[in-house]
Amino acid sequence: MDRDQAGPSRPKRACVGKFPNEREIQLLLDSDEEDNLFDFDDSGSECSVGILCDENSSESEDEVEVPNSFDDVSNCVTRPPQIVWQDNPNLQQFPFTKQKQLLVPIPGEGNPYDFFRFLLDDTFLNLLVNETNKYAEYEFLRLAANPRSRISLWKPVTPEKMLTFIGLTIHTGTIQLNRINDYWKKHHLFNLTCFSNYMGRDRYLLIMRNLHFSDNSVDSNDSDRLFKIRPLIDYFNNKMNNVYYPGKELSLDESMVLWRGRLLFRINVINTV
Fold first, then answer.
1. Where in the numbering of this chain does the PiggyBac transposable element-derived protein domain appear (predicted)?
2. 3-state DSSP call for residue 192?
3. Least confident residue range of 17-31, 215-229, 244-258
C-alpha cells in the first residue's frame, strides 16, 4: 500500500429507526404531555434515535420498534413518578429554645484585637507557655550534649513572648514568602523590619520547634488520635459554648484545608445558615 494513500475510513454505523419529519418534531415541542419521548444522539458522524418506553413492557430494548409517526409514539410513553415528601414520625425532634446571638457583651471597644484577646485569653496563653516550656526542657536535656544544637540557646518563653509569636505567625499569612527564614532577611527586597524588631529569627524558630499543647509525659489514650491537641480542642469548645449560640439551621461541610496525607478520621466544619 502506498504510504501517501489514505487508508480506509471507519465504517459508519447505520441510523436506527427513522427521524420524525418537521411536523412531528413541532408537535413534540408544542405538546407538554409528550415530553422526553425521543433520545437523540448525533455525536460525530453517527446518529441514532431511541424511544423512552414503559419499563413494564414485555418487549426487550432490542425488540422495540421505532415508530414512524407521532401517533405510534403515544403508545410508548411512560410518565415519570410523582415524588411525594412525607414527614418521618420516627425522627427525634429537638426543641430550639434560643436565638442565634452572642451570650456575652462585645469585649472592649469592639476592635479586632479585643475579639482576638477575648478568644485567646490568658488561660489559652498559659496553656501554650507551660506545655511549650515543658517540652523544650525535655529536648534540652536530650540534645544539650551537642554544642551545635540550637536547643542549647533556649530561654523559657513568657506569655508576652508567646503572644508576639502568635501575632507574627498570623502575619506570615498576610505577607507570604517561600521560607520562614525569608522574613528575617536584610536584603532590600525582603527587608521586613516588623519581624526582626519584635523577635529574632532563632528565637522564633525555637518556639516553633517546641510548640506544644499537651503533656507528653502523661500516658496517652490509644483510642484518642487527637491526644496532642486535645487540650486545645477542649478549650475552644468550652469557649464557644460560653460566648455564642448558633442558629437553628446548620450545614455540615467538608474540611476547607487541602490535605494530601493519610488521615484515619474525618474532619468536618459546621457552618451556620
1. 111-267
2. coil
3. 17-31
Helix intervals (H) in the chain = 22-30, 70-73, 112-119, 122-143, 159-174, 193-196, 201-210, 230-243
Asked if residues 212 and 231 have their Cβ atoms less than 8 Å apart, the reply is no
**pLDDT at position 68 over 70:** no
Buried b (16+ CB within 10 A) or exposed e, 63-78: eeebbeebeebeebee
Q: At what angle do helices 159-174 and 122-143 cross, to 10 degrees?
A: 100
**What is the predicted pLDDT for the residue at 268?**
52
Between 183 and 270, residue with greater pLDDT: 183
The residue ranking higher by pLDDT, 263 or 170, is 170
The SS3 call for residue 40 is: strand
